[in-house]
Amino acid sequence: MQSRYRKQQPDSGPLTECPLTHGETNADLLLDFCNRKLAPELNAILQAHVDICPPCQAFTETQAQVWAALDAFETAPISSDFDARLRARIEEEEQRSSWWSRLWNRMTAGGTANWRPMAPVAAVLLLAAGLSLRPSGSEVPDGGGPDTAPLVKSAELSVEIEQVETLLEDLEMLRELGVAETNSSRQM
Amino acid sequence: MAQPSPETRVQEDVTAVATLERDAQLMLRVREGCSTSFAILLEKYRGPVIHFLYRMVQNQAVAEELAQEVFLRVYKSRANYEPTAKFTTWLFRIATHLALNWHRDGKAVKREESLDCESAEGIQRQIPDRDPGVEQRLLREARFKEIRKAIQGLPEKQRAAVLMHKYQEMDYSQIAGALECSESAVKSLLFRAYETLRARLAHLA
Q1: What is the mean pLDDT, run by run of 10 residues, along chain B of 205 residues?
Q2: CA distances for A79 relative to A82, B2, B102, angstroms
Q3: Which residues in chain B are contacts of A33 at CB distance < 8 A?
Q4: Mean pLDDT for chain B overall
Q5: What is the pTM of this model?
Q6: What do you get for the CA distance between the two ends of chain B, in Å?
Q7: First and final C-alpha spacing in chain A
Q8: Contact partners, residue B130, CB within 8 Å, separation at least 6
Q9: Complex confidence, ipTM
Q10: Searching chain A, which residue's CA lies closest to the CA of residue B68?
Q11: Which of B41, B51, B195 to substitute to test the interface with A, most A CBs within 10 Å?
């Protein structure tokens, strides 16, 4: 069968004679053909076309060569301690987030409590606590030096955490009271 | 060109679906707190993720560091995991994001290995010396260097698309999911990338 496509060498410039190699829209057909991913019927049709189409032959040949070349792109062995390092990072991450998770779980009672109605009360309580936590004489003295400042700050932080925990307990109590009130009002 | 029979293709599809479901089920178990399921997923995808990242950033230490971040993010987002997308699509989306961010942050410029320099982590480590002939070894090294250069010369999204297509054998929809673009955009990326690679690498085969 006489081919209507002009024979073209792969390195003689862009292959433009066949619509299959020319446009981006059709090129995936040839890629899938080269990759043996086409359905058998479509593959047979394309095989018949490639057999008589020099540009498509050139395309499939060079594509196969590219894939063969890419196969040589080997990778390095993975470090033997990869999993151990990952485990350490996960543990570190969990420890870092654990105090926050405890706080969150208490606030949400393990995700089951409907605390949204209590949010305004909590906000007011937190604001009041914030104001009461600012003692007038607790500023770090100017001559305190860099060694004493972190101690003072950590002491303040521990007081703050205690205050927040107390507040949360109060909040929990208020929530229970709220639930009790709701139940009693329903009973009435 | 030999084609797989219809029966083989169906069997392959069934296996692929079963694998996808297995991955999603494993991840759902991770969500419930099963660390063994996480270990299975890590065992299965450690290699593919690190190799993908290595080919993206071309530095083994950075690839492993980014892979650690990928699995850490998978673990941290276990509580919110919903099997709406394929697990591999989600996994490679995270990996691609990290690799692209790494390039955009300019870290690539600071830590990139010189392709002309045979560093301890580069060519010498990559190529096992199966052939004792010096000439053969040099030829293989030159070939490897050229492949790395060709891959590195591709724009980042094209590079990611080719790596997922060639080495992970992901289909267009999966690549589109990982790159967060349309399938036609993926086809266009692959077309242009392979066009460039054909011009640069065909002579190597």
Answers
A1: 60 63 90 92 96 94 96 93 87 95 76 46 48 77 86 94 93 93 92 91 71
A2: 5, 39, 21
A3: 1
A4: 83
A5: 0.65
A6: 18
A7: 97
A8: none
A9: 0.75
A10: A86
A11: B195
Burial of residue B91, with CB atoms counted within 10 A of its CB: 0-12 exposed, 13-18 middle, 19 or more buried: buried
A86 and B55: CB-CB below 8 Å?
Answer: no
Helix, strand, coil percent content, chain A, rounded in steps of 5: 70, 0, 30
Q: Which long-range contacts (CB under 8 A, 24 or more apart) does B73-79 make?
A: B74/B27, B74/B38, B74/B41, B75/A90, B75/A93, B75/B30, B75/B38, B76/A93, B78/B27, B78/B30, B78/B31, B78/B38, B79/B31
- Single out the residue of B100, B95, B99 nearest to residue B47, CA to CA: B95
Sorted by sequence, the CB contacts under 8 Å of residue A167 that are 6+ apart come out as: A122, A125, A126, A129
Nearest residue to B69 via CA among B48, B91, B46, B98: B98
DSSP assigned state of A13: S
* Helix or strand run (H / E) with residue A180: helix A145-187
Distance between B198 CA and the closest CA of chain A, angstroms:
6
Q: Does B120 touch chain A (CB under 8 A)?
A: no
Residue B68: both structure tokens together: 């650690």
3-state helix, strand, coil in chain B (%, to 5): 75, 0, 25
Interface check for B166 against chain A (CB to CB < 8 A): the answer is yes
Which residues contact residue A162 at a Cβ distance below 8 angstroms, ignoring those fewer than 6 apart?
A: none
CB-based contacts of A113: which residues, under 8 Å, 6+ apart? A107, A175
Structure tokens at B101: 């961010």
Q: How far apart are CA A105 and CA A97, in angstroms?
A: 12
- Structural tokens at position B173: 């929809």
Q: Is the dihedral of CA B188, B191, B194, B195 positive or negative?
A: negative
Q: What tens digit of pLDDT does each residue of B60-110 get?
A: 999 999 999 999 999 999 988 888 888 999 999 999 999 999 988 876 665
- Tell me which residue in B3, B187, B201 faces A28 most closely, judged by beta carbons: B187
* Span A101-114, average pLDDT: 58
